[in-house]
Amino acid sequence: MRIDHTAIFVNDLENARDFFVKYLGGISNNGYHNGKTGFRSFFISFDDGSRLEIMNKPGIADPSKESEKTGYSHIAFSVGSKEKVNELTAQMKADGYKVLSGPRTTGDGYYESCIVAVEDNLIELTV
Fold this sequence. Notes:
Layout: E1 6-9, H1 13-24, E2 27-28, E3 32-33, E4 40-45, E5 51-56, E6 74-78, H2 82-94, E7 98-105, E8 111-117, E9 121-126
């Protein structure tokens, strides 16, 4: 068994798609639109076969996103090396994203950074 995909609702669908394509090498499909409900989505595919569905629908609640709460916390992307973690973290910071932590080696041995990105959702970059 494997997880097929993870999904996230966003307000700005195209901006979210562009983030995952630009920084994390995702490849987007052409999108889906349900004219009756207004639901729209893109599937972003990554080179290891994992996928992320980004979705938008009129009227979806947009509560504040506290970084420490129950429920989903972040999406982690293994980028292959410490150098790539450092490079992407610096690029995202230069582009105006807030670096919450790192790059650093955590107590459990991960080399990572955590970025507040895509509408205040957390993205973790790791080796």
